Amino acid sequence: MKICVTATDKNIDAAVDPRFGRCPYFVVVDPETMEFKAFDNTAASASGGAGIQAAQNISDKGINVLLTGNVGPNAFPILSAAGIKVMTGASGSVKDAIRQYKGGQLNETAAPTAQAHASMAAPGRGMGGRGRSGGSGRGMGGGGGAGRGGGMNR
């Protein structure tokens, strides 16, 4: 069995990173021997779709179980389709997360636990819009000066 844990560093004593798609590293652990291998999450710096890319990356590695803090709605279906059990709420170190899993302290997640981030394609109110001021476009003054001054050149 291969258990993948989202982590802040490349070792078993690293803290669990609660972000699936944006975690810097994945630590893959054999829960029987506690032997591990770590690899970079190449999707972490993606401008968009990090969860989707991360899900594809770990599904290619033959992972059986994912331990993380949260997983979003774009990554979750990919993980499910790959047959990867998603366990959320992991905390502490990678080693602690493995113990939590083996001790039955984590629950399998049947749905995404994080919302989609407002990325490039998300609709929103934005900053644009039509102004509602009825200004005449002549600047601050009304232009009604009498012009009686002689100026500076007397």
Automatic annotation (TrEMBL):
Ranges where the record places region Disordered: 120-154
Top-level taxon: Archaea
Residues annotated as domain Dinitrogenase iron-molybdenum cofactor biosynthesis: 14-102
Pfam families: Nitro_FeMo-Co
Compositionally skewed regions (Gly residues) per UniProt: 125-154
SUPFAM superfamilies: Nitrogenase accessory factor-like
Signal peptide: none
InterPro entries: Di-Nase_FeMo-co_biosynth (IPR003731), DiNase_FeMo-co_biosyn_sf (IPR036105), MTH1175_dom (IPR033913)
CDD domains named among the record's database cross-references: MTH1175
Name this protein carries in UniProt: Predicted Fe-Mo cluster-binding protein, NifX family
The organism's taxonomic lineage, starting at the top: Archaea, Methanobacteriati, Methanobacteriota, Stenosarchaea group, Methanomicrobia
